[in-house]
Amino acid sequence: xxxxxxxPLSLPVTLGQPASISxxxxxxLVHRDGNTYLTWLHQRPGHSPRRLIYKISNRDSGVPDRxxxxxxxxxxxxxxxxxxxxxxxVYYCMQGTHWPWTFGQGTKxxxx
Amino acid sequence: xxxxxxxxxxVKEPGASVKVSCKASGxxxxxxxxxxxxxxxxxxxxxxxxxxxxxGDTKYAQKFQGRVTMTRAPSITTVYMDLSDLRSDDTAIYYxxxxxxxxxxxxxxxxxxTVSS
Lengths: 112, 117
Known about the structure:
The complex is a heterodimer of chains A (112) and B (117).
Chain A: E1 4-7, E2 10-13, E3 19-25, E4 38-43, E5 50-54, E6 58-59, E7 67-72, E8 75-80, E9 89-95, E10 102-103, E11 107-111
Parallel strand pairs in A: 2-11
Antiparallel strand pairs in A: 1-3, 3-8, 4-5, 4-9, 5-6, 7-8, 9-10, 9-11
Chain B: E1 3-6, E2 10-12, E3 18-25, E4 33-39, E5 45-52, E6 58-60, E7 68-73, E8 78-83, E9 92-99, E10 104-107, E11 111-115
Parallel strand pairs in B: 2-11
Antiparallel strand pairs in B: 1-3, 3-8, 4-5, 4-9, 5-6, 7-8, 9-10, 9-11
């Protein structure tokens, strides 16, 4: 199985400051169709996860543009340009290129 | 809008089975897949398997092979996940999720399954 490793696992941030989360996979995530199926999810306390970004860098409808995704191959990053209070929670990366689909361990973002 | 509404919390004894339902609305079942993902307390998210809504074909994670069964009832746009021979480490929140081109875009509200004697 493809192992997804996130860092850091805990990220205290100051409101208005940037934040960055890394996600690395043990295998390349380029699908035979040429796409890279790397997704970022956000889960607020007491809620179901919500998708933020798919195929590395495509933001879902309604996702603020302070969120951006980048990367290629086995190395991916989620960036928040200016953290707001509603951004707290756990962020997960997920790969849908290889079976079984797998998730990172999660990165908990909290306000300092 | 897309909604996935799951059945309520369950408490089961070890060795029992549980069946969780997920009612979908706001989109067409045709050509779609549904995945089940669980979240074990203190651990991360775990993909369990997928069902093709047109024909019922399934693909399960090896870890759950032989214990999980995913089915669907297209007439009522509902999918089901049956997990048998429950153990204490199956205590988790179980989510149905909608497939969106090798990704997951919508999640149900989750169903807490507690396995305890």
